[in-house]
Amino acid sequence: MKYLVMLLILFSNQARNETFTYTEINSDNGNIPLGYPVPIPVDSLTPVDGFRSYQSLDLRHQQLAAQTSLIERILIGETFNGRSIWAYKLSDNDEIKVSGGLEGSALINGGIHAREWQSPEAVTGYMEALFSGQANQHIEQYLLENLTLVLIPVLNIDGFLQTQRFFNKVTDLASYPREGRMRRKNMHAVDEDIQTLADNFHGIDLNRNNNPYWATNANGSSPDNSSLIYHGSSAASESETKALQQAAVVAGEDRLRFYTDTHSFSQIYFTPMTGDERRDNITFELANIMRAANSYKYQYGPSAAGSGIGSTDEYFANTYQIPSYTLEIEPLNSATEYGGFGVSHDGFILPNSEVNRMRAETTTAALAGLYAMSEPPVITGITILHLNEVIWQQEWQSADNSAELITVLEQALLADTPYQLQVSFNKPMRQVADSDVVAFSNLSQVQGINLYWQYLQNNEEKEVSITSNQGEWLLEGFRYYKTDSYLIDFQLPSDFDWQSITRLNLKVETTDMVGQKLDANPRTVADWQNGHWHQYENALGNVSDSGGVDQSMRLIDDNSALFPVVEPPKVESSSSGGTSSIMIFILCVIPLLSRKGLFN
Amino acid sequence: MNTHKLALPIIMLASMLLPASIYSQTISNSEFIQAQKSAEHFALSSKLQDVSKLKLALTDIEKHETRLLATERVFRLLTAQPPSFAHTSWLNSQLLSDDVLYIPNPDHPEQQLEVVNIAKQAKAVLEIWQYKEKAKTITEALASYRWQWHDFIAEQGKGKYAALSLALNDADEASLLWLQNELINSASFTQADNQLLVMLASLHASKALVAQVWENEADQYSYQLLQGIEQLFAKEEAIKQLNLASHNSQLASQAILKLTTVFIDDDSVQNKLLALLNEKDTAWHVAMAVCSSQHEGMIDKIMQLGRELSAILYVKRCMKEAL
Fold first, then answer.
1. Mean pLDDT confidence for B160-180
2. For an interface test with A, which of B13, B69, B107, B280 has the most A Cβ atoms less than 10 Å from its Cβ?
3. How far is CA A76 from CA A107, A247, A281, B306, in A?
4. How many CB atoms lie within 10 A of CB A93?
5. Which residues of A touch B219 (CB under 8 A)?
6. Same structural domain, A456 and A589
7. What is the ipTM of this complex?
8. Can you give the pLDDT at residue A570?
9. CATH of the domain at A312
10. What is the DSSP string of A132-165?
11. Confidence of residue B323 (pLDDT cuts 50, 70, 90)
């Protein structure tokens, strides 16, 4: 019996001792053929068709920071093994937006799980895109001048290095590899030798180490230190978790309005609901914007409020009431999507040949999300020209959280006379590709703007459409950024008579690049507060998170109210919000009951 | 926001119902590990030659998850042997299998992570058999020195590379050299892509093949080749190749990092780095590489530089900080 027990122990240890080698096609014993070349970390500063080593990624970040004052390298903590964890603050030196008002801030984390190599490459891609576009007078420059972005390219550096050290080796089950290339957790009390079995499964899952739902879900996290989802001894017990929290301080906690934790794989935006209906709706809309950037190939996965697993997106959603995501980068299911053999866990090993595209796609989506959250679109001024001479100029000049309409130049307009109207906004309003204005998915069109003159003449309300002509979003002669201004020819009708008009205003219907409508009341400057937009009025002048039509630009002002009906401010969505909440409750309960067999 | 009022709950419903619909095929992590261990215990190796016996043995395994894992193991073992008609037929029939084993995605337990997919794995085995069959043909052709690079380069599909790679693993040095020379001297040489060039050069170092890789537009193969260049060539030749690669803008920073981390003690390398430090496109790459190296010889040389380029100033500053 004694020998039998010894034999069993020996066999058990042998089973656990197995180390496998990833190969391209070699299927000899102990090999796991992927069906594509095994990515080897490359020491390169510039992006490669593949993955860069941690050392060269770190040097790359330093290189970008050294070359511009718009990127600052900030120490936010250290790993369990004492390595410095760096955050990068990307912003201009002031905290004020170009159109006035305080900048918001955003935080994006990368490399929390060691084996998810897509993540550090994606986050580095964001930094590289903003660096190379810092003076492009378009989205990238706009973001640097109107938002404070903090990026952590690699949080779990110890773990990431371990996976790169053993880039083609895993233990201990071929179908369920854990250590070496497939390490997920940090290196808390783990040595770097994958042959020493006792500690191979140890370490803390940094995405289970967070409040408010730390250790509250037996299925979602574990008290067993060998578990893949071990939550640690207490919330934020790990130095890496504390570093992440410090990054929020660097970003400016009171200005924070966006968080993403970047993972792979399964091609989805996971996000926790918090029960704050406005925040939850904005989170849904914002995910749609980021999904639209890549033709909706990424899915959307909200989880119900009131419970969680201890992940970082829950921490940021609930602590700051901001849109907060776990982005799982591609593939959707496995590397068979790229012609791979489909071995277990190969989704963590994106083929080298897909990395450049993945980096570009995730960058487009991230920048779209940041652009949306920087500020809602608002009209900032108009200019009217006649024979290339400015005859009318009006601007909203903002101070703190309010703005005043200033008429800089005024000259009466005449009927049947050719004019040009230039309408300016606070941000680039359209996507540009190869020097052409293009649509952004289905969220904005090349033109996508309707302009009308509205006037009260002899007590009769009249409205004349201007956009029967076709104007253009300006790529030259704009105000601050390409496409922040729209130029169009117009003429006023024959019966237009300046002298008999008591009110004349411009009506503007458009959206920004990602489909957000205008702040209908530029007099009150929109900002993010307490989980929603503040002073982002809709067409009726009511509180909203989605804006409306602008009619604020008055050339002749009769001092009548800007919005026809003065109502007490109310949340646009509140009328049916109860229905929505009940729907969510019912829809969450049905599948749970179904699983428990209560409907069988 | 109005248009999306119902979308959120609908998406939540869909995301919760989807895993429910495949729940029966999902097992917990611990059940999975247990099943994996059980699957290893079945003596299947001895039955590999006889498909009927194999099928029977697998059918006899009671637990579904253990059966799937045992089947996957059999597939793995089968790749090592030439298939009979019965083997191929059986694997082809498995292409239609909908047997898939999921475990909960550790990140989001309501989502499933696919760990075994019989149809996908059957397809992989069939592909590997095809590659091996093709490799056999290539080996025979090489044995009699019958080979036309033009035909190989013109052939479509990724299978040709896999087959060639398998064939070359067993090829002797003489055959390899002959193949390399046939390519270098053929009219098709400049049309050879990096995948082919790197495959041939990796098995037996060839200056001409490697130099052609640096000439071509960089892709995953050129980066991987450059990463291991010091294993392929002796020091002097490796430095030469790195100097060549540094002229390819996509490979420049990698070549510079390699020169700095591996060969910086060499005077010629230090002089090359100084030259590259004065060039607009490479100055910052050299600056970062040298700062990272903290090499004393380079410190002296850079401190003596008169030019005030920002990259040079950066190096001087980081050197001073290190001192």
1. 92
2. B107
3. 13, 6, 32, 37
4. 7
5. 49, 353
6. no
7. 0.88
8. 57
9. 3.40.630.10
10. HTTTSSSHHHHHHHHEEEEEES-S-HHHHHHHHH
11. low
Q: Do B115 and A336 touch (CB under 8 A)?
A: no
Backbone angles phi, psi at B142, to 5 degrees: -65, -35
d(CA B232, CA B236): 12
Q: Say yes or no to pLDDT of B201 above 80.
A: yes
Average pLDDT on B294-317 reads 87
Same domain, A133 and A238: yes
CA-wise closest residue to B116 among A167, A334, A349: A334
Both A270 and A333 in one domain: the answer is yes
What is the value of pTM for the model shown?
Answer: 0.91
Chain B residue closest to A68 (CA)?
B310
Distance, in Å, from the CA atom of B259 to the CA atom of B272, rounded to the nearest integer, reads 9
Q: Which of B12, B115, B220 sits opposite A175 (nearest CB)?
A: B115
Q: Is A18 on the interface with B (CB under 8 A)?
A: no
Residues in CB range of A388: below 8 A, 6 or more apart: none
Q: Which pLDDT belongs to residue A413? A: 97
Say whether both A550 and A410 belong to one domain: yes
Residue B206 CB: number of other CB atoms within 10 A? 21
Strand A460-465, strand A472-473: pairing = unpaired
Single residue among A334, A357, A374 that ends a domain in this structure: A374
Report how far Cα B163 is from the mean position of its chain's Cα atoms.
16
Q: What percent of chain A has pLDDT over 70?
A: 91
Q: What is the mean pLDDT of residues A500-510?
A: 97
Structure tokens at A200: 């191979």
Name the token pair of A86: 């760096």
Spatial contact of A298 and A291, defined as CB atoms under 8 Å apart: yes
Shortest distance, CA A553 to any CA of chain B (angstroms): 25
Domain coordinates in residue numbering, chain B: 23-125, 228-323
How is residue A305 written in tokens?
A: 């409020």
Chain B residues with CB inside 8 Å of A595's CB?
A: 20, 23
User: By CB neighbour count within 10 A (0-12 exposed, 13-18 middle, 19+ buried), where does A486 fall?
Assistant: buried
A151 & A26 share domain: yes
A323 touches chain B (CB under 8 A): no
Residues A517 and A539 reside in one and the same domain? yes
pLDDT confidence of residue A4? 40
Q: Is B22 on the interface with A (CB under 8 A)?
A: no
Residues of the domain holding A326: 2-374
Q: Which residue of A38, A49, A206 to mutate against B (max B Cβ within 10 Å)?
A: A49
Helix/strand/coil for A271: strand
Alpha-carbon span B238 to B236, nearest angstrom: 5
Reported as a single tens digit per residue, the pLDDT across B145-165 is: 889 999 999 998 889 999 999
Token pair, residue A8, equals: 């069993």
Query: Strand pairing of A147-152 and A169-171?
Result: unpaired
Give yes or no for B279 touching A (CB within 8 A). Answer: no
Same domain, A134 and A256: yes
Domain end call among A322, A341, A374: A374
Q: Are residues A383 and A368 in the same domain?
A: no
List the end-to-end C-alpha distance of chain B, in Å, as a whole number. 59
Give the CA angle between residues A19, A20, A23 to the nearest 5°: 155
A window 535-564, beta carbon within 8 A of B: 544-546
Partner-chain residue, chosen from B33, B109, B115, that has the shortest CB–CB distance to A220: B109
Among residues A261, A238, A250, A206, which one has the least CA distance to residue A75?
Answer: A250
User: How many domains are contained in chain A?
Assistant: 3
The yes-or-no verdict on residue A585 having pLDDT over 60 is: no
3-state SS, residue A536: coil
* A280 at interface of B, judged by CB pairs closer than 8 A: yes
Distance CA A282, CA A275 (A): 12
Structure confidence at residue B297 (pLDDT): 87
Chain B residue closest in CA terms to A184? B106
Partner residue opposite B121 with nearest CB, options A44, A342, A545: A342
